[in-house]
């Protein structure tokens, strides 16, 4: 098989492999949701004449984060493979420089300083398509761009196993007045009068599972919802890759 043809097959296989990981993520996510995200406990505090209800988010399997990292790398490396094939085509079979890759840039600094050696072996016409797909094209909304999110997923996964978290506990309560409420990192406690113990109605709202972590001194605060991964995959498969089909005829 010619080198270029092999490269295109590899690109297609990488994107297909990304979908396999994505399907596994969605299956595991459904399993977690179906098993319930909350652990609910109740206890009486007779001294204060209170009934205390605690909702705690169950630990979310690390497998979701591991699968997300694998999905991100298949998708991201698929784009780098695309850039390599564009360079091979432009150089008519000569080996591109090792820095050849599909750049993804945000607006800082503004304007972007350029793409360095990553696109020097790619034709101007193909580069124009790459440049038009850049997240900085969205201005202040660059961090909503699927390619920016994909790139951040890869950066995060390089340094740590992708953290898996959930949004804060939320629930609706009726039938009794809340005397006190305490918020914890992964739990919420509410107290009602002991006399209202059997009147209270609790309606938990499932927290959304997210990848990433809150902003701290050692993290960027990057987060992405599980549902956004499908959007990223479809953008790469349906919006990015087809734009370059004409360069391989």
Q: State the helix count.
A: 5
Q: Could you tell me the strand content as a percent range?
A: 15-25%
What average pLDDT do the residues reach? 84
> What series of H and E elements makes up the topology?
HEEHHHEEEEEEEH
Strand order, main sheet: write it out: 1-2-6-5
Q: How many structural domains?
A: 1
The radius of gyration is 24 Å
Any overview of this molecule?
It is a single chain. The chain has 249 residues and is an alpha+beta fold. It has one domain. The chain is 40% helix and 20% strand. It is built from 5 helices and 9 strands; from the N terminus they run αββαααβββββββα. The strands form 3 sheets. Strands 1-2-6-5 form a 4-stranded antiparallel β-sheet, with no helix packed on it. A 3-stranded antiparallel β-sheet has the order 3-8-9. A hairpin with a 4-residue loop joins strand 1 and strand 2. Helix 1 packs antiparallel against helix 2 and helix 4 crosses helix 5. The two termini are 16 Å apart. The model has no long low-confidence stretch (mean pLDDT 84).
Sum this structure up briefly.
The protein has 249 residues and is of the alpha+beta class.
């Amino acid at each position: 098989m010619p080198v270029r043809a092999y490269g295109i097959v590899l690109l297609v296989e990488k994107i297909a492999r990304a979908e396999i990981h994505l399907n596994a993520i969605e299956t595991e996510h459904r399993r977690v949701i179906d098993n319930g995200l909350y652990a609910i406990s109740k206890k009486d505090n007779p001294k204060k004449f209170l009934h205390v209800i605690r909702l705690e988010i169950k630990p979310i399997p690390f497998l979701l984060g591991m699968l997300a990292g694998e999905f991100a790398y298949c998708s991201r490396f698929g784009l780098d493979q695309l850039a390599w094939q564009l360079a091979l085509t432009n150089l008519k079979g000569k080996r591109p420089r090792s820095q050849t890759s599909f750049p993804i840039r945000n607006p800082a600094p503004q304007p972007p300083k350029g793409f360095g050696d990553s696109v020097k072996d790619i034709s101007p016409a193909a580069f124009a398509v790459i440049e038009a797909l850049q997240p900085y094209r969205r201005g202040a909304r660059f961090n909503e761009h699927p390619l920016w999110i994909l790139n951040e997923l890869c950066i995060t996964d390089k340094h740590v196993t992708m953290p898996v978290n959930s949004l804060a506990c939320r629930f609706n309560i009726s039938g009794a007045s809340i005397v006190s409420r305490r918020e914890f990192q992964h739990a919420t406690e509410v107290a009602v009068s002991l006399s209202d113990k059997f009147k209270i109605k609790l309606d938990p709202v499932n927290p959304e599972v997210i990848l990433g972590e809150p902003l701290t001194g050692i993290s960027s605060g990057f987060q992405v919802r599980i549902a956004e991964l499908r959007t990223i995959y479809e953008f790469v498969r349906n919006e990015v890759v087809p734009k370059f089909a004409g360069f391989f005829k």
